[in-house]
Amino acid sequence: MTRLSTALKWGLLLWMAVVIWAAFMWVPSATGFKGESSRIVFFHVPTAWVATVAFLVSCIASVIYLFRREPRDDARAAVSAGLGLLFAVLATVTGAIFARIMWGAYWNWDPRQTSITILLLIYAAYFALRGAVADTEKRATLAAVYSILAFVTVPFLMFIVPRIYWSLHPDVITNADPDNRLDSAHLRVLLASLVGFTGLFVWLYTIGSRIETIRRRRQQEVL
Amino acid sequence: MSDLAGIMVVTMIIWIGLFAYVYRLDRKVGRLED
Known about the structure:
Structural class of chain A: mainly alpha
Distance between the termini of chain B: 48 Å
Structural class of chain B: mainly alpha
Radius of gyration of chain A: 19 Å
Oligomer: heterodimer
Largest sheet of chain B: none
């Protein structure tokens, strides 16, 4: 580890610690939300954001794989899709907790909840596909094509569908209703949390890619 | 301690635990690379 990367990692620890403190202790409860439910926004929005970024990275790595046919690009696509799935699950769980406080039920098949469920199933199928094909080259090609097609659905399911249908889900950043919007202090903490979560994703993605490289190197040594 | 402070402490413990785990994993991967 270089000095810079070590400093960045310890900086991330401190950064997120400050975000957690600010989310619960510094900002007041937002108006238009029941109790303290608005505080979960500082963790729910960044996890959903990182999931979207991770699926995008997986799509880009898949396109690069189809051009270069380098196994490391296939590994990067898989690592990123796995992280996307993990963060999408976290976004679903934090969203369900928010729904319980605001609307009295963890799950009510709101368009947002339905669309993220479909997205989770689409990316779970990506790993089912990877597990079903034994030949590494064929698997990588099929997975790359599937990852690109799967990402086409991401903007549709994450941004378009929830806005077409009436939804309970608050649009706290872009809406015009001042009673149901985050003020500047909330937005600052949300932005800081987005930066922190993105940093965490980059770190996890790097580790995952390095593990895949080691795994491939060892497999080649055995052969 | 208020409920909110309690939730903050629990969240902080989860974050520090996660960081420690990932940091250790990172170092272990670094050793395997050498």
